[in-house]
Amino acid sequence: MKVVILAGGFGTRLSEETQFRPKPMVEIGGKPILWHIMKIYAAFGFRDFVICLGYKGALIKDYFLNYHYLQSDITVEPAKGAVTCHQKEVEDWRVTLVDTGLETQTGGRLLRAASYLEGQPFMMTYGDGVANVDIGKLVAFHQQHGLLATVTAGHAPGRFGALTLGETDRVEQFREKVVSEGAWVNAGFFVLDPKVLSYIGGDQEPFEFKPLTALAKDRQLAAFRHPGFWQPMDTLREKNQLETLWRGDHPPWKVWS
Hints:
Layout: E1 2-7, H1 15-18, E2 27-28, E3 31-32, H2 33-42, E4 48-53, H3 57-65, H4 67-70, E5 73-77, E6 82-86, E7 94-99, H5 106-112, E8 122-126, E9 129-131, H6 135-145, E10 149-155, E11 162-165, E12 171-175, E13 184-186, E14 190-192, H7 210-217, E15 221-225, E16 230-232, H8 236-247
């Protein structure tokens, strides 16, 4: 199953960092938060990534084009034009980098990446949030309920899309950006059937508005309840919180060894 990561937004609430680079390239512990997200999925065996680029996407392309060298010790012989890698451990990932447009909304980015999904169910998340979600259990939950979409429901302040959950884990209602401290909210980490793409109207369609609202109305959106750690990185304060956690003994989203 492929993993789509939305990495094209402007990241305006973190402008201290994003005036120089896209938000997914903002570093936690010396590594882009995008790397941390990919490590979470890879820990559960999901290593085939489709990254939707937009704002300053060339910097993400450069990062992966040079990834092998960045992760290794190297010997450079300028006169010969030769570079020898003394390879350290390099992740066994497959990364497809898709230019999905500068002004494209989240739903539109999914549509633009559709040709790389091969008509198969896929996972999707945002390029600015980490969690200790059990991805294996998330996928199994999605396969068991048989609906078109699963969203991971986490706890966070009320600037996120609030979910009204029924007793059977179906999402009865989806309301974007409702002020409700402590509610179940959209934490990303979706599993989606390709039929979900038909709910998206075009480039300017945010996935979090009409598509998710319609899926909930059609009773095709389930919630995987995750009471554990989840933290987006929308502000400098949140970035600094993640840095502090990473420097601790047990960063809560570090599910890999």
